[in-house]
Amino acid sequence: MFIYTTPVYRLSLALQGFLDEQFYQLEELQDESSPNFVEEVVTLFFRDSSRLMANIDQALEQCPPDFHRLDKFLHRLKGSASSIGAGKMKNECAGFREFCSEENLEGCLRSFQKVKKEHTILRQKLENYFQLLRQVVPVDKATRSGS
Amino acid sequence: MAVDAGAQFHVLAVDDSLMDRKLIERLLKTSSFHVTTVDSGSKALEVLGLREDQVTPSAVSPEHNEIEVNLVITDYCMPGMTGYDLLKKIKGSSSLKDIPVVVMSSENVPSRINRCLEGGAEEFFLKPVQLSDMKRLRPHILKGRSKDQQLQREENSNTIIISSSSSGSGSGSGGSKRKAMDEEPSPGRTRLRFSAGSLTML
Which InterPro entries match (chain B) (predicted)? Predict the structure, then answer.
């Protein structure tokens, strides 16, 4: 059993609206048989999302922009964000998709800036979160875990 | 092989997103299912022993026929073969049609949901899939299996058994004893068999 301040940190993350209860669901799925589950999923999320955002960048730079392709990337990005409980980012993606369906390039570019910002903040917060977890000494083990 | 409440059922999960595959695998394993994950509809058909262009499983790959899948859970939006296409392939196959299929999607589109349900899907899950959704899977598996079990018992005996679960028309098979596997079980059909001299009702 770990003692850590995470519940407090987790709560503050949620209060700031970055993560919703889906993230807690992920934590609940983590156990002795899958001890790094949350971090593994989050890693996959950032791998997916970084790739998708690079694709979105390219799609926006095309003349004229390919809104159809853009929508497909956004669908994936929104889905991934939703899967890890990144509520704020999911909402920004939804807004972006609306501009996309209207073929409003200006709106899309503004939205994309917001999505990128949320993504960066989320990455930082989650990195801090996992670092905190690694620094904690487990009660029932003699050796320190991690670093 | 007896099936009891503690039996582990095998679920085939299909999703092109690695992240989502990881999630669904964890959800299923936590709920005591044995899991195989694949990233496409065509790979799913391979696991099920069916190539895309086939209707019945290939006889040359017997090992595929031994992988018993009790339920298929698939994402709807996938490149190439969509979850709906996969659903139709499974339901269109005489040997696979009784495997329950559940479709998942991150989008709540009523016409899509109806299309899948009408196409033979047992359920439609909205993503992100929850642990509580896993409880809805077992009843679909058990529903199919209890019919199989009942038919197996009928196969193994020489008495007349009137199946309590079916309301279909009966089919006589004459006086000859039938081999266990010479015909696919088709749930819902009353099967009557006559044996010389004895008449037992269960």
Answer: ARR-like, CheY-like_superfamily, Sig_transdc_resp-reg_receiver
d(C-alpha B2, C-alpha B143), whole Å? 15
Q: What residues form DSSP beta bridges with B36?
A: B12
DSSP annotation of A31 reads: B
* Residue the block writes with tokens 């997916």: A48
pTM of the model: 0.75
Give the residue, B22 or B147, on which the prediction is more confident.
B22
Domains of chain A: 4-135 (1.20.120.160)
Q: pLDDT per residue over B13-69, tens digit each?
A: 999 999 999 999 999 999 999 999 999 999 999 999 986 566 565 554 444 445 799
Average pLDDT of adjacent 10-residue blocks, chain A of 147 residues: 53 68 91 92 97 96 92 95 93 95 96 95 89 66 46
Residue A65: other Cβ atoms inside 10 A: 18
Token pair 């156990």 is found at A31
Task: Give the closest of B77, B106, B131 to A25, CB-based.
Answer: B131
d(CA B154, CA B196): 16
Q: Which of A44, A46, A93, A45 is nearest to A70 (CA)?
A: A93
Q: How many Å apart are CA B118 and CA B114, to the nearest integer?
A: 6
With CA atoms as reference, report the closest residue to A76 among B114, B72, B20.
B20
Which residue in A29, A79, A84 is closest to B106 by CB distance? A79
- Among candidate residues B14, B5, B9, B47, the one with its CA nearest the CA of residue B29: B9
Cis before A138? omega within 30: no
The beta strands (E) that lie in chain B are given as: 10-14, 34-38, 71-75, 101-105, 123-126, 171-172, 191-192
Which residues of chain A does B109 touch, with a Cβ-Cβ cutoff of 8 Å?
none
Contact B141, B159 (CB under 8 A): no
Q: Give the distance from residue B32's alpha carbon to the nearest chain A alpha carbon, in angstroms.
A: 13
